[in-house]
Amino acid sequence: MRIAMIGAGYVGLVSGACFADFGHTVTCVDTHAGKIQALKQGEIPIYEPGLAELVASNVKAERLDFTTSLAEGVADADAVFIAVGTPSRRGDGHADLSYVYQAARDIAGAISRYTVVVTKSTVPVGTGDEVERIIRETRAEAEFAVVSNPEFLREGAAITDFKRPDRIVVGTEDERARQVMTELYRPLFLNQSPLLFTSRRTAELTKYAANAFLATKITFINEIADLCEQVGGNVQDVARGIGLDNRIGSKFLHAGPGYGGSCFPKDTLALMKTAQDYGAPVRIVETVVAVNDQRKRAMARKVTEALGGSVRGKTVGVLGLTFKPNTDDMRDAPSIAIITALQDGGAVIKAHDPEGIEQAKLVLDNVTYVDNPYHAAEGADALVIVTEWDAFRALDLKRIHGMMAQPVVIDLRNIYRPDEMESLGFRYSSIGRRTVADA
Ligand code: UDX
């Protein structure tokens, strides 16, 4: 099959490269000429494990190419995927759909025969109807169907998530479109991945419901962690104790500094707004959004308390800036709110991240970036673990203890053991676990 992927961002690139790897012929289209030029030369604009190799091998096999010309990419395509950005609109939190609608207008002008137009970007319920209306209005005689096919890719594991998905959700009631989508994903359901056909609106809502549920699960365990700290419990044991119940499941029960990233904050907000607009508010999601926002500031207070109530003039070393490991993505990373609050309190910040420093420089001011974790600890009054990169798990903690001005570690991801930290002489606090000294 021939595929056009509109938008060579995170979702478009990963999906395009994976479809090409299935044997389809894929053209990725992006208006950003510099990006297309770079991709043609094998430079990948994002950090995603395995993506550079996947792109290179499929370009070499002539199944994947890049262009700025939408008309060229779309002309012979059986399916055109819209994978452009849907950022939160400033002010009201609704998803900004202007890129999606512009893509729909451009696609309408470029298709030459029956074409399946697929929204892959996360879009509010009803967007598929609007895309269909725009195409029909722009080209009355066009033959097409609009399908919703949301992605469930995690950054850092996107290729595996694409190739071994828990499920594929396809929203369409058009029989021809159903056949095209079945053909596109054939390698996957031959592999036993369930292909779930629903109505278009149901598919759009399913994506938001999935992300909101996961954000709720994280927020739930975060609040239980706070309670553990008060009553003297251990949140990791609670998570295991509830997670072994199959009805609950053990994933997404890691307590931490609050969720961030390009999806959960934006999608929970958009779902909340849509639900309010339709007069069916999802109150549990409204609460999740508020609790998660407050949590980041609460994490800065935790650091301040560990330093005796004030960080003024103190040096705080930060390990991990990205919203999670194995990405360079800083979008809505908890580190931003935590560092800003500490700076407001008068702290001096030294930070290290294995991949995120370049992106961090764009969103944080007055931070000294260092190229290894030990330099972040050197002379610091406190060391805060914000992102659980594997490289931080096996640090020489004795060496770190010897380098710090004060041996204070605040571990917001529970990567160290309280008893070990205590015996090394650290004043150690973590999430939802009372320290040995407290108990
Ligand atoms: C998420 C969804 O998992 C994916 O299906 C969707 O398509 C896009 O959004 P992603 O944002 O890449 O993917 O990251 P994910 O691994 O889900 O983590 C999101 C945030 O939740 C991170 O800030 C992470 O640190 C946090 N998190 C996750 C926790 O705090 N605890 C957990 O148990 C799991």
From TrEMBL:
Residues annotated as signal peptide: 1-20
Record's keyword terms, sorted: NAD, Oxidoreductase, Signal
EC code: 1.1.1.22
InterPro entries in UniProt: 6-PGluconate_DH-like_C_sf, NAD(P)-bd_dom_sf, UDP-Glc/GDP-Man, UDP-Glc/GDP-Man_DH_C, UDP-Glc/GDP-Man_DH_C_sf, UDP-Glc/GDP-Man_DH_dimer, UDP-Glc/GDP-Man_DH_N, UDPglc_DH_bac
Pathway in which this enzyme or protein is active: Nucleotide-sugar biosynthesis; UDP-alpha-D-glucuronate biosynthesis; UDP-alpha-D-glucuronate from UDP-alpha-D-glucose: step 1/1
Annotated UDP-glucose/GDP-mannose dehydrogenase C-terminal domain residues: 317-418
PANTHER family attached to this UniProt entry: UDP-GLUCOSE 6-DEHYDROGENASE TUAD (PTHR43750)
Listed NCBIfam families: NDP-sugDHase
Record-stated family: Belongs to the UDP-glucose/GDP-mannose dehydrogenase family.
Protein name (Swiss-Prot/TrEMBL): UDP-glucose 6-dehydrogenase
Taxonomic lineage of the native organism: Bacteria, Pseudomonadati, Pseudomonadota, Alphaproteobacteria, Hyphomicrobiales
